[in-house]
Each structure stands twice: as structure tokens, then as C-alpha cells.
């Protein structure tokens, strides 16, 4: 148990350190830019406005919101203090809605869409990769190029293709949104049915894209494990191939957990863009509308919350991995 | 070296990837030579002209004709004039009027028209049919009537007095040779929402995107290689610091940093090169990690120790004793970075954070435009599908090359 | 003469490479081992000794393929059996194997006891967990292994401990023949000694009835096994008792190998077999005549194309060698060096 405690402690420290760095970056990066962000953003906001006092007001509001007239370090502490209270500022484009309000209504959609989609993609991909490695001939020859090709279709591309085929051409799925546009979210059966039918396409587009990469990785890993010495030894002790395949896939699968932890950031990036294609009411679409409307507080908050989510998922995967792979425990005793 | 190359080209995966990539590159180079001009020139006034060959109607009427009597010409003309929707609408009329349509094949134009002429009555008011719908049928009937009405079209021009004066007649058997028509424009992929030639734009965009990928890949590889070498070879405190930073940036999603930086730079400063640099600067962590672990395993090999004992400088040891051994990994990492750089640009552009839109097209920008103008919901597949296919093919070819290299350099993965 | 536990007759197997080339790694090997005896196999790396070990299991999977020959264990010919019955009724109980790289021979993420369960259940599918544990604990204790090992994962064991665990697992079903492929080569001197001691105990306590011990470390063979045979390019070039082979080698290849070896201390690391210049022939196309001719100091022109017979001599014809030259002729040549 000592090994696990040490491992757990280490991971927690890492989680906190990366979180602090992420918050600092989120704060500093936009402010490092040479141009005066207040002027730049006000300029964008004021496009097409003729009323000088309105422009002035926007400028003031922004300055006040961020305290950009105060020294950088003071700004940072105000930022952190507000952050701890869950106050992420006020949106420009949906004034006077609170940013935290907008984010909290979007985050549920994103989690409900992406977490299951990425997990299902990971599982199916690993299954296919393992099959390809085990069966090799024929199956592998067909599956590997297909998986490689699929893994190279960008997430948004898959989203568009599914959308056009199923929603536009065959009309078996709705074109976009999280639920029918004429509904108000509630817990009626009709609403839930609508949510489910809107869920299908974004879900499968993310699953299809993540399957390929995972399958290719799992295949290499399994082939590597199938050639391991313990496989040969177990065979010579008369152990059934089916049982040995069990050993192999367990061992090949475990590093795939870390692989998932390391690639989750990239995967979420792609999946967020897929949300835009379906106008899914999650963080991706929020980010998109924030960018189009030059809604600076909303952009900053969205990036921060996405980073936070990725950090949490990575942390959890690391912890799970520590429990299921004894190699981690052994490494901790060695260290 | 020669031997390694030969081995690499023995790998079928590498060869397939290489051939696809070179074919794309050759297209980038050759196509602008045979079809020169500004890829962003808006040649079409409307949006989303369909793919095909466009013949100038004006020039065609002024081209000498030949008479060809083709037996199926009339049928074809009819078939083209009656769209599928019209045919379905006609059947709907019959059904509404209670006419038996059993056994009627809507692709059989003659039968359909015969039934229509026999049964259509403009004064009839089928139950539940709106006025607008009835008007549609009237228009449809008029156009059906006009099909056979005149066998000739008259070309007339205004004379000095402003009166129309007949210049000639065109009959259904008049043909012009496309080669003799002064203006024929082939648009194999139609035009986009701005009326630009999609194929020309696509070729130029793929070129720009590949350059973005190459710059991003080069930056990421250079940064990653330098940090990895320092971290792995020098070790100690340098290693600790570099790995600390690397680990942090491995977990913080690069995509998020990319968004933050791109947004902060602002639209005006965001050229293709700047975007490429930013992508490169947010994606070096993988290379750093793999280079570092390679260098650590090399650091204490005999030939390196020998070099150290001979008093060679750090730079020389790295260049002559370390780099050649990790070259294959670096090349592989570079290839992956190029492909993920191209993808990153596309995703950024879709978010509206891509390169500024006025100078050069990129694959991401084309995709963004197509989506903004709903090409995907209005059936203009040529505006987005070739873009997706191009991105996929480029990244597929690069990844195939990478897999091929991997199989050559990691023999356990060989089949 | 004791009862023959293992007889191998003219065994031929091959590797098929990924370029679809055949490599004849074991090319007509015959020998036998009597009850209670151990036989050592010596040779350079690549001479086919490890392949011989794998070929003798009667259980073939790619890239190794069986061509012809017999493997008879305690009167039962296993070479003609179908793979599944070999797996169920031969492996582990009749013949067992200790692999070359025991460091990686155990599944790193499995507890040792789980693996022991899997091994025992191949032959006794209904064995209860408790019984298996008792059996394993008893056997481990008798072989001087702490029983706590059973509840550990392979990654948590030291190298020497892993090797001894592998030996204990391989012999847990008391096989008649144990094939050990370089069981101690990768270990430090102390662990090596313990492994050798363990092998002796296995034999003394009757957990195994005979042993084939493969190594490139000759001094080890002299101390561990009763008989030694020398392999070269997929064939046996000479066979005799350990003493005879070390002090009185006949074949020019054995002579070259043994010549420089002093009587070694048990467990010390001695000269390895690299003293003879040249490289072994390509086994994709084995030479027609003597396979050693290319490197033999005494080779005559006819050595290169004549087929070389196995010749027997010594007390009761127990010694064998494979050379055109006669025993006395060779002794004569050696005496002039």
C-alpha cells in the first residue's frame, strides 16, 4: 500500500502544479501580446457602432471587468480571487449574462457527449486492434489500412460526412442542435427522445474518429506483447492460446490507458470542433460563438474550463492506472 | 545510409504513403502551371456553381452549326426538363385527383406526359391543395406545354431603331462543336460560396496547408530535439527543469494554448506563417520526450564514452555520436508533427481563428467558408468534400510513411 | 545401462523467415538420455542449440516448423501427436522447459500463484485453488523459495528470484525431462550458484528424471552434467562424458573449443566459445560436405563434398564424432601442436 500512497501523492502534487501553471498561462498569454487588448477588443466590439459614448462604455466596462488599469500582479490576484468564487466575469456578447452561467449550461452537454464517445471509441478501437493483432493474416491486412485511413479523417470531416449522409440526404437524423429547436428543456419523454436523436450523429462521429487511432496503437502494442518471452514460456507449459491471449491483451491494454490519458487533450480538441458542425450546445459551440462575437471573457473561461476538465480526466486515468497495473507499484518501490 | 534507404523503400506501407504524398506535391506544382491565375479570384457571380464544363451560351449561338439527327435527342431533352421533383409532384396530382397510377414508372417520361396531358385540368381544385401548390402545377403544365410547342428558337438583336430583328434560328437538330466555341470553362469542382474555382483554390490551399504543416513540424521538431538532447545528454538540473516544463505542457492541451495565443495575436497579425509558428510552438512535447529517452539509452554507450575521453566537445559528440542514432526517430516525429500541424490549422480555422482570410486559401479556411455558407446542408458537396478528402489523404500518406519507417526501425512490429 | 528416458532420432526442424526462406536450424540430431542423467549441449550462438531445445517440446508454432524425426519420452513417441494432445498430456508433465531469458518469462502483471493455477489446471481443470496453493507452497519450500513469492507479481521479484521461480513453476508437475536453455547465463555469480544447486536438488529429489542443459559456458557443463555434446551448424559433431569431452576432445571443432580450458571451479565464469576464427555456414543452404570444413585447420579437399558419417568409438561405442579423419589420425595431428 505504501507504493500506492506515494504514487497517489505524487500525482496529486502534479495535478495541482499543472493546474496553477494552466491558470497562470490562461491569465498571462492574452496579456503578453504587444497590442493593447482593451483597445483591440473594444475595436472589434464597436464595429459598426456609431455612438461614441457606447464605444466608450464598452471600453470602460472591459477595463473595469479586468482591472486592466491596475498592475499585472494585482490583476492576477483579483482574477484568482474571482475564480475561486466561481466568478468568471460577464459575457460581452450575451450581456448581462454571467460567463459562469453560460459555461455551466454548456459543460453538461460536452461531458455527456464526449466522455462516453471517447470511452466507447477507445474500447472499440482496442478491441479491433487486438483482433487485428491476433488474427493477423487477411483481417489485419484489410483492417489496418482502413483503421489508418479512418484515424486520419479529421473529426470535423467525419462530422460533416455523417451529417450530410444521415441528416441531409437520408433524413434519419436531425441536422443539429442538442434537442428540437421548438422545445424547452424538461424531463418529459418527448424531450428525452429528442435529445437522444440529436445525440447520435455527434456521438458516432467522435467514436468513429477515435476508433482508428486506438486500433492502430493497440495492434502494435499487442503484436509487441505477443512476441514477448512470457508468451512463449506459457505456451511451452501447455497453457491454452485463448488464455495466453487474455494475458497479452491485458498487458497491451494497460499502457493504452496511459495512451488515452496522454491523447485526451488532442481528442477533445477535435471533438470540440465536431460540436460546432452539429451546433451542439456544448463548450465547442460556445467557444465558436465567443470567437465570432469577440467575447473575450467567454473565450478565456472556456479555455480554462476545458483545460481543467482535461487535467481532471488525466489525473483520474493516472490513478486508475496505478491501481490496475502492478508494474507501477513495482516502479514506485524501485524509486 | 544507402542500405537504410533501400530497406525503407522495401516497406510497402512507406512506399504507398510516399507515392500518395509525392502525387499530391506534384499536383501542387504542376496544376498552377497549366491553370495559372489567382486562386482567390471570384469568377462566378452566384454561389456554389455545380461541377462541370461551362459553355458560353453567347459564343455558342455565334458558332457555326452542324445538323445532327439523333433519334433520342427529344427524349433526353424532355428528361432533363422534368426534374425528379416535378415527376413526384405529377404523381401526387394524379393521386389527389384519384387517378390510377398503378404500374406507372416515373422515369418513363413518355407515359408520364401522356397521362398528364390526358388528365390535367387547370380548373380542378383537389381537396386540401393550397393555392400556391395549384399555381405550381399551372407553371409546371405551362413548361410541359412549351416543350413541344416550338421546334425552333429565334435569335433576335435590337437594330438601330430599337426593334428586334431576327438574326437567325436555332432548331433542335443544330449542334456546335465545343472546340469551336470561343469560351468554354471547365470547373471540375464547381465554384464556392464566393464564386471561386474550387479546384484551383483547393490546389493552392493544399500547398499552403502543407507549408504550414512543414513549418509547424520543423519548429516543433527543432524545439523538441534541442530540449530532448539537452535534457537527455546533459542530465541533472537541466534535465529536471526541462522535464518539469515538458510534463506540464504534455498535460495542458496544446489545442487550448493554440486558441488562446491565436486569439490574442488578433486577426490582423495572423498570417499563415504566424499560425504555423504558433502551432509548432505548442506541439513540441512529444518530440522532447522521445528524443530524451533515446539519448539516455545512448549516453553511456561505448562510442560516446570514447568520444568523451578523446576530449571532443559537447556539440561534436551530439552531432557525430548521438544524432545519427536518433535520426530515424526524429524523422518519424517530424512526419507526425507535419500531419498534426495541418490538422491543427484546419481546426483553428473552423473556430474562426485561422490565418487572415485575404491572402491565401488554406484547407481550414476553405472548410470554414463552406460551413459558414451551409454548403453541407444545401447539397454543395464539392465545396467541402474534396477538402476533407485532401486533408485525410495528406495525413494518411504521412502516417503510412511513418508506420512504414516504424516497422523498419522497430523490428518487433514486422509482419 | 539405465532405462532410456528420452530418445531423439534424426530430428529435423526449420525456421521459416518472414521472407519465406527456410533455415535448417536442427538438421538430423540423434541422442538419448538415461534415467537420472543429465546431458549438456555446447556450441556457439546460432549453432541451433536453442532451436534444438524448442524443437524437442513437440509443440511447434511459427516461425518454427517440424520436418521429420522422432522424440520418444519414456517409450512414448510425441513427434507424431497432434498439437493439442501434446499441449494437454505432454507439456509440463512429460517434458518441461526453462527459457533462455527467464527475466521476461513471467507475465509481469500476473500474480505468481495465478500462473501456477493456470499451469496446473491445464492437466487438472478441476483442481481447487486451495489445493493448488498447498501444493505450490510445499514445492516452493522444498526448493528453498519463500512462499511469499506466490502472492507477488513478477515485476516485484529480483532477477535471481525470478529465475528460481521459473524453474520451480516449470517443474511443478514433476516432468520426466527438463530442458534448460541457458538458465543461469544472465545472472550474477551468487544467483548462478543457487540456480545450479536448485537444478541438482531437482534431480536428487526426483522431481525430474533427466535433464538437457544448454549453455555456451563450458565450465558450467563440466560441473553440472554427466555427458556433453557439441553442436555445430544444426548438427551434433561430438558426444561423450563430460570428462572425456573436456580432457580428450576428438573432433577438430570440440578440440578448438576445449583446448584452452583449464579445469574450472564450479560456478565461475569461464572462457566462452569464440576462440575459433571464421563464422558458421549459412543454414539456408547448408554445405554439402563437412559443415566445419571452412574453418577447420586440418580440412582436406574431400571434406568439402563427401557426406560425413557419424563414427562411434570408446568403451562400448558410447562416444560419437562426425569427421572424415580417424581417431588416431586426429590424435596424431593434435600432438604436433
Give an overview of the whole structure.
The complex is a heterotrimer of chains A (335), B (415) and C (337). Chain A is mainly alpha-helical and 335 residues long. Chain A contains 13 helices and no strands. Chain A has helices spanning 2-32, 37-45, 52-66, 72-84, 99-135, 139-151, 155-169, 189-226, 229-236, 241-277, 283-292, 296-324, 326-334. In chain A, helix 10 (241-277) packs parallel to helix 11 (283-292). The longest helix of chain A has 38 residues, at 189-226. Chain A starts with a helix and ends with a helix. The mean pLDDT of chain A is 83. By secondary structure, chain B is mainly alpha-helical. Chain B folds into 2 domains: 2-43 and 193-413, MetI-like (MetI-like fold), CATH 1.10.3720; 66-176, no CATH class. Chain B contains 16 helices and 6 strands. Chain B has a two-stranded antiparallel ribbon. A two-stranded antiparallel ribbon of chain B has the order 2-5. The longest helix of chain B is centred in the middle third of the chain and has 37 residues, at 198-234. The model of chain B has no long low-confidence stretch (mean pLDDT 87). Chain C has 337 residues and is an alpha/beta fold. Helices cover 29% and strands 23% of the residues of chain C. In chain C, helix 6 links the parallel strand 7 and strand 8 (210-214). The longest helix of chain C is centred in the middle third of the chain and has 16 residues, at 189-204. Chain C starts with a strand and ends with a helix. The model of chain C is unreliable at 262-274 (pLDDT under 50). Chains in contact: A-B, A-C. At the A-C interface, helix 9, helix 10 and helix 13 of A face helix 3 and helix 5 of C.
Amino acid at each position: 500500500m505504501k507504493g500506492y500512497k506515494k504514487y497517489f501523492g505524487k500525482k496529486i502534487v502534479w495535478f495541482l502544479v499543472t493546474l496553477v501553471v494552466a491558470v497562470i498561462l490562461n491569465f498571462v498569454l492574452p496579456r503578453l501580446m504587444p497590442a493593447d487588448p482593451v483597445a483591440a477588443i473594444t475595436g472589434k466590439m464597436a464595429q459598426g457602432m456609431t455612438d461614441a459614448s457606447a464605444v466608450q462604455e464598452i471600453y470602460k466596462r472591459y477595463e473595469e471587468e479586468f482591472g486592466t488599469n491596475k498592475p499585472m500582479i494585482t490583476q492576477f490576484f483579483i482574477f484568482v480571487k474571482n475564480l475561486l468564487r466561481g466568478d468568471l466575469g460577464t459575457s460581452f456578447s450575451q450581456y448581462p449574462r454571467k460567463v459562469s452561467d453560460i459555461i455551466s449550461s454548456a459543460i453538461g452537454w460536452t461531458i455527456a457527449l464526449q466522455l462516453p464517445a471517447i470511452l466507447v471509441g477507445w474500447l472499440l478501437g482496442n478491441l479491433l486492434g487486438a483482433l487485428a493483432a491476433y488474427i493477423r493474416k487477411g483481417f489485419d491486412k484489410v483492417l489496418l489500412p482502413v483503421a489508418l485511413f479512418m484515424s486520419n479523417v479529421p473529426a470535423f470531416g467525419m462530422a460533416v460526412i455523417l451529417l450530410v449522409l444521415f441528416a441531409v440526404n437520408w433524413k434519419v437524423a436531425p441536422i443539429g442542435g442538442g434537442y428540437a429547436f421548438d422545445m424547452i428543456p424538461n424531463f418529459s419523454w418527448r424531450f428525452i427522445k429528442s435529445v437522444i436523436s440529436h445525440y447520435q450523429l455527434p456521438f458516432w462521429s467522435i467514436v468513429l474518429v477515435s476508433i482508428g487511432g486506438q486500433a492502430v496503437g493497440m495492434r502494435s502494442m499487442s503484436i509487441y506483447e505477443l512476441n514477448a518471452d512470457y508468451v512463449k514460456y506459457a505456451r511451452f507449459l501447455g497453457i491454452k492460446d485463448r488464455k495466453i491471449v487474455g494475458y497479452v491483451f491485458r498487458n497491451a491494454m494497460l499502457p493504452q490507458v496511459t495512451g488515452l490519458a496522454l491523447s485526451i487533450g488532442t481528442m477533445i480538441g477535435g471533438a470540440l470542433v465536431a460540436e460546432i458542425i452539429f451546433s451542439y450546445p456544448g463548450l465547442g459551440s460556445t467557444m465558436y460563438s465567443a470567437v465570432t462575437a469577440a467575447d473575450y471573457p467567454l473565450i478565456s473561461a472556456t479555455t480554462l474550463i476545458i483545460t481543467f476538465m482535461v487535467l481532471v480526466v488525466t489525473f483520474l486515468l493516472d490513478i486508475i492506472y496505478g491501481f490496475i497495473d502492478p508494474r507501477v507499484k513495482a516502479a514506485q518501490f524501485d524509486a | 545510409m544507402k542500405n537504410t534507404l533501400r530497406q525503407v523503400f522495401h516497406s510497402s506501407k512507406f512506399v504507398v504513403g510516399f507515392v500518395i504524398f509525392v502525387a499530391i506535391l506534384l499536383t501542387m506544382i504542376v496544376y498552377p502551371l497549366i491553370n495559372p491565375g489567382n486562386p482567390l479570384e471570384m469568377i462566378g457571380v452566384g454561389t456554389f456553381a455545380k461541377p462541370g464544363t461551362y459553355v458560353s451560351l453567347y459564343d455558342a449561338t455565334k458558332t457555326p452549326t452542324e445538323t445532327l439527327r439523333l433519334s433520342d435527342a427529344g427524349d433526353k431533352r424532355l428528361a432533363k426538363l422534368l426534374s425528379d421533383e416535378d415527376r413526384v409532384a405529377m404523381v401526387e396530382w394524379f393521386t389527389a385527383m384519384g387517378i390510377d397510377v398503378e404500374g406507372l414508372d416515373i422515369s418513363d417520361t413518355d407515359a408520364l406526359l401522356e397521362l398528364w396531358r390526358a388528365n390535367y385540368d387547370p380548373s380542378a381544385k383537389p381537396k386540401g391543395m393550397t393555392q400556391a401548390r395549384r399555381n405550381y402545377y399551372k407553371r409546371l403544365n405551362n413548361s410541359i406545354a412549351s416543350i413541344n410547342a416550338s421546334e425552333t428558337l429565334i435569335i433576335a438583336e435590337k437594330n438601330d431603331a430599337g426593334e428586334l430583328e431576327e438574326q437567325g434560328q436555332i432548331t433542335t437538330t443544330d449542334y456546335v462543336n465545343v472546340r469551336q466555341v470561343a469560351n468554354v470553362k471547365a470547373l471540375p469542382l464547381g465554384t464556392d460560396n464566393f464564386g471561386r474555382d474550387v479546384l484551383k483554390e483547393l490546389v493552392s490551399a493544399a500547398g499552403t496547408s502543407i507549408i504550414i504543416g512543414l513549418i509547424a513540424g520543423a519548429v516543433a521538431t527543432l524545439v523538441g530535439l534541442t530540449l530532448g538532447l539537452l535534457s537527455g545528454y546533459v542530465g541533472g538540473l537541466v534535465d529536471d527543469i526541462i522535464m518539469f516544463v515538458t510534463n506540464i505542457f504534455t498535460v495542458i492541451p496544446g489545442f487550448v494554448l493554440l486558441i488562446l495565443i491565436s486569439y490574442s495575436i488578433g486577426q490582423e497579425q495572423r498570417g499563415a506563417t504566424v499560425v504555423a509558428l504558433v502551432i509548432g510552438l505548442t506541439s513540441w512535447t512529444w518530440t522532447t520526450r522521445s528524443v530524451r529517452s533515446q539519448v539516455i539509452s545512448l549516453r553511456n554507450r561505448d562510442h560516446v564514452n570514447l568520444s568523451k575521453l578523446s576530449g571532443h566537445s559537447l556539440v561534436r559528440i551530439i552531432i557525430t555520436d548521438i544524432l545519427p542514432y536518433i535520426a530515424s526517430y526524429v524523422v518519424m516525429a517530424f512526419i507526425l508533427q507535419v500531419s498534426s500541424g495541418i490538422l491543427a490549422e484546419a481546426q483553428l480555422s473552423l473556430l474562426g481563428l485561422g490565418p487572415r482570410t485575404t491572402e491565401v486559401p488554406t484547407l481550414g479556411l476553405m472548410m470554414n467558408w463552406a460551413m459558414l455558407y451551409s454548403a453541407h446542408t444545401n447539397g454543395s458537396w464539392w465545396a467541402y468534400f474534396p477538402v476533407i478528402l485532401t486533408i485525410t489523404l495528406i495525413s494518411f500518406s504521412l502516417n503510412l510513411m511513418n508506420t512504414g519507417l516504424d516497422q523498419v526501425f522497430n523490428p518487433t512490429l514486422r509482419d | 545401462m539405465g532405462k532410456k528416458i528420452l530418445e531423439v532420432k534424426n530430428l529435423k526442424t526449420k525456421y521459416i523467415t518472414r521472407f519465406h526462406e527456410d533455415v535448417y536450424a536442427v538438421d538430423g540430431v540423434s541422442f538419448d538420455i538415461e534415467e537420472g542423467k543429465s546431458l549438456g549441449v555446447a556450441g556457439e550462438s546460432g549453432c541451433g542449440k536453442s532451436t534444438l531445445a524448442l524443437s524437442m517440446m513437440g509443440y511447434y508454432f511459427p516461425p518454427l516448423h517440424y520436418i521429420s524425426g522422432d522424440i520418444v519420452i519414456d517409450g512414448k513417441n510425441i513427434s507424431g501427436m497432434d498439437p493439442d494432445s501434446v499441449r494437454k498430456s505432454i507439456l509440463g508433465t512429460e517434458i518441461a522447459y526453462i527459457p533462455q531469458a527467464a527475466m521476461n518469462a513471467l507475465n509481469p502483471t500476473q500474480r505468481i500463484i495465478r500462473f501456477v493455477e493456470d499451469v496446473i489446471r491445464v492437466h487438472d481443470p478441476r483442481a481447487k485453488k486451495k489445493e493448488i496453493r498447498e501444493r505450490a507452497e510445499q514445492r516452493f519450500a522444498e526448493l528453498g523459495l519463500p512462499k511469499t513469492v506466490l502472492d507477488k507479481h513478477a515485476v516485484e521479484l529480483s532477477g535471481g528470484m525470478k529465475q528460481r521461480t521459473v524453474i520451480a513453476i516449470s517443474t511443478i508437475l514433476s516432468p520426466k525431462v527438463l530442458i534448460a536453455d541457458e538458465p543461469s547465463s544472465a545472472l550474477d555469480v551468487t544467483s548462478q550458484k543457487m540456480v545450479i544447486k536448485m537444478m541438482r536438488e531437482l534431480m536428487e529429489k526426483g522431481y525430474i528424471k533427466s535433464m538437457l542443459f544448454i549453455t555456451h559456458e563450458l565450465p558450467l557443463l563440466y560441473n553440472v552434467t554427466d555427458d556433453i555434446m557439441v553442436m555445430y551448424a544444426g548438427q551434433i559433431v561430438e558426444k561423450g562424458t563430460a570428462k572425456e569431452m573436456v580432457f580428450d576432445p576428438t573432433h577438430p571443432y570440440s578440440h578448438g573449443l576445449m583446448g584452452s580450458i583449464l579445469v574450472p571451479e564450479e560456478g565461475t565464469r569461464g572462457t566462452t566459445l569464440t576462440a575459433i576464427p571464421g563464422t558458421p555456414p549459412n543454414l539456408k543452404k547448408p554445405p554439402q560436405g563437412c559443415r566445419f570444413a571452412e574453418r577447420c585447420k586440418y580440412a582436406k579437399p574431400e571434406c568439402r563434398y563427401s557426406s560425413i558419417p557419424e563414427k562411434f568409438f570408446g568403451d562400448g561405442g558410447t562416444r560419437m564424432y562426425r569427421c572424415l579423419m580417424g581417431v588416431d589420425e586426429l590424435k596424431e595431428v593434435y600432438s604436433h601442436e
